[in-house]
Amino acid sequence: KSWLAQYFTPNRTPPPTLHCSTMARRGLIAFAAARLLAAGSCSDSDVVSMLQHEVKAAEPEMEVAMENWLGQYYRLLRTKQDPVLTSCCALAKRAEISPFFTWGKATEAEMNWWNEVDCNAAVGADEPEHPKGVPNCESMSMLTNLVP
Predict the structure, then answer these.
(1) pTM
(2) Percent of the chain scored above 70 by pLDDT?
(3) Quick one: which H or E segment has residue 121?
(4) Is the confidence at residue 17, as pLDDT, over 60?
């Protein structure tokens, strides 16, 4: 069977996107080769350079689209941050607070604010029996560091 008959029979699902991209690239190469061979006056190096140009022109589309998508996603994450979490994480870092373990260098006013706002829940330290630091702050900083 030809490749066309293999993929376009009535009971068969369409090929995956990556395969479609490969098929499109092959089509571009075949079209470029046919166009250059039909001209007849081209040298072999012209044919090779035209084929290389056609192949390179189609490759980065997926990479560029993925970079754009990731950039928009991280930008969205950065703008949707929780202001309470941001404030609690900043205080925990500055005053070296480790919930249910130590107040670090926090003043009395900072300790009261921490409890009023319920920073323990915001930073992910919700189990007094098992102090684990500030896990939500660590994951937030990891994501925001990825944003350009």
Answers:
(1) 0.43
(2) 46
(3) helix 119-122
(4) no
